[in-house]
Amino acid sequence: DAGVTQSPTHLIKTRGQQVTLRCSPKSGHDTVSWYQQALGQGPQFIFQYYEEEERQRGNFPDRFSGHQFPNYSSELNVNALLLGDSALYLCASSFLGTSGGEAFFGQGTRLTVV
Amino acid sequence: AQSVTQLGSHVSVSEGALVLLRCNYSSSVPPYLFWYVQYPNQGLQLLLKYTTGATLVKGINGFEAEFKKSETSFHLTKPSAHMSDAAEYFCAVSDREDTGNQFYFGTGTSLTVIP
Questions:
Q1: Which whole-number Å values give the CA distances from A11 to A21, A28, A42, in the listed order?
Q2: Which one, of A46, A33, A44, lies nearest residue A106 by Cα?
Q3: Which residues in B have their CB inside 8 Å of a CB on A?
Q4: Residue A16 burial (CB < 10 Å; 0-12/13-18/19+)?
Q5: Which residue from A41, A55, A58 is facing B107, i.e. has the nearest CB?
């Protein structure tokens, strides 16, 4: 089992551009959550996808959008990039239906906006 | 609403000494509590979690934590620090009623182990 995989590992974009990050969940998991971890901070919840629908959303602007595919993999899209979007973006997968369950995290995508 | 406060953004201990990382939470409903560890350039790895039952929870690598409802705390301890314990540690809370397991993280504590 490869666990949660994210791609790419590093990315440099210019302010105003758009970016797409990808995540493949752990085998058997059906729910994908995305987190933004700014330097020196804890991860902040962006949103969560289940059955190809956005199930929950944190306090992030509409520039942040996502998608989940039938195979449960997911994308995070960020439009009109700002310098403040520079962060480590973490994907977490879990199984919906049992609260208190463990979420497995990928290694993250380091996004740098210049 | 849930939130987590981690006291001490940086903690240094000598190798072999006790490790104590503090976490206090605020939750409108009985919470689930977690400790995750993050090594440089890596994602988060679960150390331990409290859901129900025994309030003293044992995790991987010799770590344990105790849920104290009266103190709204979930401090992480390890009797004897090892060099490999140097990492960033995050305390997190999730809502007992949330089957999606959304986490609210603290700002983290960086642990340095001095040889």
A1: 9, 28, 20
A2: A33
A3: 4, 9, 32, 36, 41-46, 49, 51-52, 90, 92, 94-108
A4: exposed
A5: A41
B7, B101, B104, B109: best mutation site toward chain A, by most A Cβ within 10 Å? B101
What count of other Cβ atoms lies within 10 Å of the Cβ of residue B37? 21
Does A56 sit within 8 Å of B43, measured CB to CB?
no
Amino acid at B111: L
CB neighbours of B76 closer than 8 A, spacing ≥ 6? B19, B20, B21, B23, B35, B47, B48, B63, B64, B65, B89, B91
Residue given tokens 């642990």 in the structure block: B111
- Residue B53's φ and ψ, nearest 5 degrees, are 85, -145
Query: Each residue's pLDDT tens digit in chain A (114 positions)?
Result: 679 999 999 999 999 999 999 999 999 899 999 999 999 899 999 999 999 999 989 999 999 999 999 999 999 999 999 999 999 999 999 887 766 677 899 999 999 999
Span between the terminal Cα atoms of chain A, in Å: 36
Q: Are A11 and A109 in contact (CB under 8 A)?
A: yes
Sequence-ordered list of residues with C-beta below 8 angstroms from that of A59, at least 6 positions apart, any chain: none
Instruction: Give the chain B residue whose CA is nearest to the CA of A46.
Output: B102
Task: Map tokens 């700014």 to a residue.
Answer: A38
